[in-house]
Predict the 3D structure of the following.
Amino acid sequence: MAKATNITWHEAKVKKEDRRKLNGHGSAILWFTGLSGSGKSTLSVAVEHELHKRGIRTYILDGDNIRHGLNKNLGFSPEDRKENIRRIGEVSKLFVDAGIMVLTAFISPYQADRDMVRELVEGREFVEIYVKCPLEVCENRDPKGLYKKARSGEIKNFTGIDAPYEAPECPELVVDTNQQPLEDSVKQVIQYLEENDYIEKQPVRL
Ligand SMILES: Nc1ncnc2c1ncn2[C@@H]1O[C@H](COP(=O)(O)OS(=O)(=O)O)[C@@H](OP(=O)(O)O)[C@H]1O
Ligand SMILES: Nc1ncnc2c1ncn2[C@@H]1O[C@H](COP(=O)(O)OP(=O)(O)O)[C@@H](O)[C@H]1O
């Protein structure tokens, strides 16, 4: 709910389309969602690297990092997760307006919260990428030892253990990190972006 009244929107002379033209590419949100340990951070970093090599302006917003600053006052209750995603949605929208390809790596466990972000931006600007991986595999990877802590009760409301994860109903892309190596997942995302005209196809180097 908006609290402020008597506020007026100011239009800038330079528009999103002007910035995109200057950059020479489009802008969108690549929204990676999935369980802890599914590979959101690993994949978004690798995809960003590939985009950067192609001369595309990018920025990553990662759950762990954002919770150190902008969202340090939020925990993991359903309400706080919702507010976390709402703020990230708004920040991502600013990046899209700035003409930048923004990659987000948040568990974002609720479909309604992800849909809220989709509604915030224009039609094709939200690309939902489900980083799919069975809970057992994520738990086995346990890169930060958090599942162990969640199982022992040291961490409460841990996604997949005692807090829900709602798999995307209709994502633009499903990347199965248990079925393919990282390089194939990167190719899958880049191919999607090329085929859907978010980025230019790169000529095959012989
Ligand atoms: N209770 C609980 N549940 C889930 N995750 C937890 C929790 N406590 C701490 N962490 C760590 O916080 C990271 C998830 O933050 P997010 O902002 O992505 O979460 S959410 O989208 O608001 O659900 C998550 O990062 P990833 O492992 O990269 O997903 C964890 O490192
Ligand atoms: N095919 C794969 N794709 C991505 N990550 C993988 C894959 N196989 C194993 N991993 C490992 O799984 C872990 C995923 O951790 P991370 O990227 O932090 O996940 P998340 O950000 O979703 O919590 C990393 O240690 C990564 O090396």
In short: The two ends are 56 Å apart (CA to CA). Helices lie at 16-23, 40-53, 63-66, 78-97, 111-120, 135-141, 146-152, 182-195. The chain has a mean pLDDT of 96. The longest strand covers residues 126-132.
